[in-house]
Amino acid sequence: MKPIVAVPATLALVYRAWSKKSLTAVGIVAAALTAVVHALHPCSAPFALLVAFFLSGTYVTKIKHDVKSRLTVSSTGSTGGEGPRTHVQVLANSVVASILILLD
């Protein structure tokens, strides 16, 4: 993928994740590294799919948040939402694709 497209798009996604508090600080670093790996592929499809996954995932998470927060039990045992995604969640969703891109 061309850096003239990938760099601004990655910076925009990092800014969006930071400003909307979608990811923790370490989660943002992991997501940025994942985006770089996806942008390394000569075809733009992996990067475009990563962007679509991130944007749709953050949008869908917020749908009926009030209902889901009453039905969800957090790891501390209290009710409520889960908060921003961590690096563990970022890597759980992206590490296989990133490895396959690097092997290609």
From TrEMBL:
Keyword Heme present in the record's keywords: the answer is no
Which N-terminal stretch is annotated as signal sequence? none
User: Which ranges form a coiled coil?
Assistant: none
Establish whether keyword Membrane is in the entry: yes
Single GO cellular component annotation? Answer: membrane
Compartment list: Membrane
Question: How does the record say this protein sits in the membrane?
Answer: Multi-pass membrane protein
Which keywords appear in this protein's UniProt record, sorted alphabetically?
A: Membrane, Transmembrane, Transmembrane helix
**Pfam families this protein is in?**
DUF92
Q: Membrane spanning segments where?
A: 29-55
Question: What's the family?
Answer: Belongs to the TMEM19 family.
- The protein depicted here goes by the name Uncharacterized protein
User: What species was this sequence derived from?
Assistant: Emergomyces africanus
Lineage, broadest ranks: Eukaryota, Fungi, Dikarya, Ascomycota, Pezizomycotina
